[in-house]
Amino acid sequence: MDIPYTVAVRPDTGLNNGKIAIWLFLASEVMLFGALFAAYVMLRVGSTSWPAGATYLNVSLATLNTVVLISSSVTMVLAWASLVRRDFSRFRLFLGVTILCGLVFLVIKYFEYSAKFHHGYLPRTNTFLAIYFTLTGLHGLHVIGGMTVNAWLWGPGSALWKTDPAHFTNRVENAGLFWHLVDLVWIFLFPVLYLL
Amino acid sequence: MGDAHDHSDLDRQVRAALLVFACLLALTAITVGAWRLHLPTRTAITLALCVAAVKGSLVAAWFMHLVAEKRIIYWVLALTAVFFVPLLLFPTFGALDAVRLH
């Protein structure tokens, strides 16, 4: 039996089910990161001294990562727009660039983490590094999750385009919404951890 | 984003996305530039969070298409905000209170 309303709009919500589902999921993600941001605020306000982020962290690399992630959000929009225009080859190009940007972000993060470990800066070193590794680690896992979904849509999942292009376009749109949330979280992590 | 798109509407959305991209890059440059000025802590925090809020709003409004979304999505987000705001504020007030008591 087919899942209903994957493409057709539900009369009561005015949306397909996938769209509602992804927004409910994103709402839960907002609460997850919100709880960790609240933990950061509590730890910082309750601390007698708090190091400037730049004491431990590389602001230049983080700025580069911000640009990379923002760029990946635009290419995600362009990938979806290409599908709406029925241009599958451009879709693959833009989604490929999005995946590549995610990979570049992770490689830069790897170099950042490696430098910390090399200097003996570990989560147990102090409270600042503990919350830094928790927040950026969880965000990194989200980047990996988003890239995995995008890679599947770029590769084997794209077979759906031939049989049900509207359904496939909706899937790409929903994956894009998740990817933009990952970008949005980083937009707040960057100043909070690195600059303040 | 609606489920039916005509091409002129799509062209507008793509142009808007590219404009937002340019704004996000400029705002990132402003954030880093302000950090290099070594402003007082309170000013720096206020400025950085305001710029981040503007950037976040641009992403949510244009990349996630919240400028033209169905009402039920706004209700989902409003309900999230009802829990999210106290989640951030109550611990903060509690921690500030503890600092004052000491």
What does this protein structure show overall?
The complex is a heterodimer of chains A (196) and B (102). Chain A is mostly helical and 196 residues long. Chain A has a single domain (17-47, 57-195), classed as Four Helix Bundle (Hemerythrin (Met), subunit A) (Up-down Bundle). Helices cover 78% and strands 0% of the residues of chain A. Chain A contains seven helices and no strands. The longest helix of chain A has 31 residues, at 88-118. Chain A is elongated, with a radius of gyration of 19 Å. Chain A starts with 16 loop residues before the first helix and ends with a helix. Chain B has 102 residues and is mostly helical. Chain B has two domains: 1-69; 70-102. Helices cover 82% and strands 0% of the residues of chain B. Chain B contains three helices and no strands. Chain B has helices at residues 7-36, 41-63, 71-101. In chain B, helix 1 runs antiparallel to helix 2. Chain B is flat, with a radius of gyration of 19 Å. The model of chain B has no long low-confidence stretch (mean pLDDT 87). Classes of the chains: A mainly alpha (196), B mainly alpha (102).
